[in-house]
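Quarterly update from the structural biology core.
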Amino acid sequence: MNIILIGFMASGKSSLGRYMATRTKREVIDLDHEIEQRAQMTIPKIFETVGEKAFRDLESYVTKLCKNYHNTIIATGGGCVLRAENRKALKEAGLVVWLNTSPENVQKFTAKRSNRPLLKGDKSLEEISTMMKSRERFYQESSHLKIDVYEHNLEEIFNIIQNYKDQFLAQEYAKE
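Predicted structure, tokenized:
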């Protein structure tokens, strides 16, 4: 079964994905990296040259491909859940884990970085919080499990997911 990591920018999806891959010997796929490979340019460059809609279209395309992966850890982009078709595709592709973070962590981990087009211009804590709140219902709708990452280290998060995965699998088999 795939484990799909969703959450706002800087919630730790890529870092946790790599950590889990080393612990489980599974492949990790970063959807932002997949988008960059297909577009042959960075995400900021995609936003700059063709705009957010074209980026979201490509993001939807690679999200739908998640169902083709097996026993893979998939780290999504922060806005992947904005489209209903993506939320549906994620839930059909595996166990979806929402890594919830705080606006303070987002600001701390994105400060002085230019690779996050939607956070350009040193967004205030209030602006980040507003953006996070506007996406919260989409993360909720998309996920099977929510983890407040600021309360745990990587090992603890890994263990929470592993324990939940076993319960999730048992529930899925019971439905059949």
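The CA atoms of residues 2 and 70 lie 6 Å apart.
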